[in-house]
Design a protein that fits this description.
Length: 371
């Protein structure tokens, strides 16, 4: 067979973002107004190689951006590369702090869920027709007949995971034991699947899980009393217990999903301090414990404490096991953020995050309100 030559157009395509070598990237920085001395060129180049031009400049230089008549971005006079890198460094440092607490909440939630499911539905993961099932007379805890919710896709995913997962400990249990209990299987499940599984559980199991994760002042009985009174006043009629239960589950699931999205943002090294989740935390977490100082109604409707960084901090506090850990959390947070203030005299990091200036006092009072 002969060699096939493809016809090519002599004109070069005009891509919006063509390849740009490192030298060109450094030249572009200076042309746009981001200064660094020649003595720092090697260090700047090293940071761009490590983190990428897009991550550093497009992600964190917008605080210094100014408008001009050209289509190219430009930055305010006096903007230094170190100013931009500081925003990046602050964001990653804050993310590392929050990530530890988010993983702890996730672990606690997963363990509580596994415990309640095993207590209620047993430990057999296999369906009756599964070849590995040594106890076909024992209904699986993943059997769809145990769940009244029609959206059972999470059961299918968890069942497939138990049969096909190639990671330990699930793989080891499948190859060496006669079943895979929930506390093992869910260690290899994505958090999104675990949350969707929680959503279809009977309410009595949900209630038990939630009661062990959040403080008493926000548990179902207090929520029920508050919501029945509020809904009756607004509509003049009573609501069913099913409505109240559904609202309570929704409040909790939204909080978990907000945490999941922030966790994924951090895990993928995306910009944290300006991140907004598509899930919102209900203002009931303020109203039920009557925490009047955490945020105002006007602030909430402007997004403060709704789906922003501040809402994440509040939800982390809600899901901590005790007051001592909460105080340790906000003290660590405060120490970290205060160090940012010293290195960021323009306060651009705080302006971008929209954290209330008195966030520490608000969070501390909120801890006292719920604990």
């Amino acid at each position: 067979m002969g060699v096939i030559f493809l016809e090519t157009n002599s004109s070069q395509p005009e891509f919006d973002k063509p390849f740009s070598d490192y030298e060109h990237q450094l030249t572009k920085l200076k042309r746009r107004g981001i200064y660094f001395p020649d003595s720092e060129k090697t260090n700047v180049l090293s940071l761009i190689k490590q983190h990428g031009y897009y991550q550093l400049i497009n992600g964190y230089a917008d605080a210094f951006e100014i408008s001009n008549q050209s289509h190219e971005k430009s930055y305010a006079n006096g903007t230094e590369f170190n100013d931009v890198f500081a925003q990046f460094y602050f964001d990653r440092t804050l993310g590392n702090l929050l990530f530890r607490y988010l993983l702890n909440v996730e672990e606690n939630f997963t363990n509580l869920l596994s415990y309640e499911v095993a207590k209620k539905f047993g430990v057999n993961n296999y369906y009756g027709s599964d070849l590995l099932n040594q106890f076909p007379s024992v209904m699986s805890y993943l059997d769809m007949r145990r769940y009244t919710n029609s959206n059972t896709s999470s059961l299918t995913k968890l069942h497939n995971l138990s049969l096909n997962c190639q990671k330990d400990p699930t793989k080891w249990y499948r190859e060496n034991c006669n079943h895979i209990p929930p506390w093992i299987l869910l260690m290899n499940a994505e958090l999104g699947i675990t949350i969707n599984y929680f959503k279809i559980l009977p309410f009595d199991i949900k209630k038990e899980i939630i009661s062990n994760l959040i403080p008493p002042v926000l548990q179902y009985e207090q929520y029920e009393e508050y919501e029945c009174s509020r809904r009756s006043r607004r509509s003049g009629r009573d609501y069913s217990e099913l409505d109240i239960q559904s609202g309570y589950s929704h409040l909790f699931v939204n909080g978990l999903n907000l945490m999941r999205e922030f966790r994924n943002c951090i895990a993928h090294n995306n910009r944290l301090y300006k991140f907004r989740s598509k899930f919102t935390v209900s203002s009931l977490i303020r109203n039920i414990p009557r925490s009047t100082t955490i945020y105002s109604t006007e602030e909430y409707y402007n997004g403060i404490g709704k789906n922003d960084l501040f809402s994440l901090l509040i939800w982390i506090i809600i899901c901590q096991p005790n007051k001592a850990i909460n105080l340790l959390f906000i003290d660590s947070l405060h120490s970290t953020l205060e160090s940012f203030k010293e290195a960021d005299p323009s306060n651009s990091f705080f302006v971008g995050s929209e954290l209330p200036g008195d966030y520490y006092n608000r969070l501390k009072e909120y801890i006292n309100d719920i604990r």
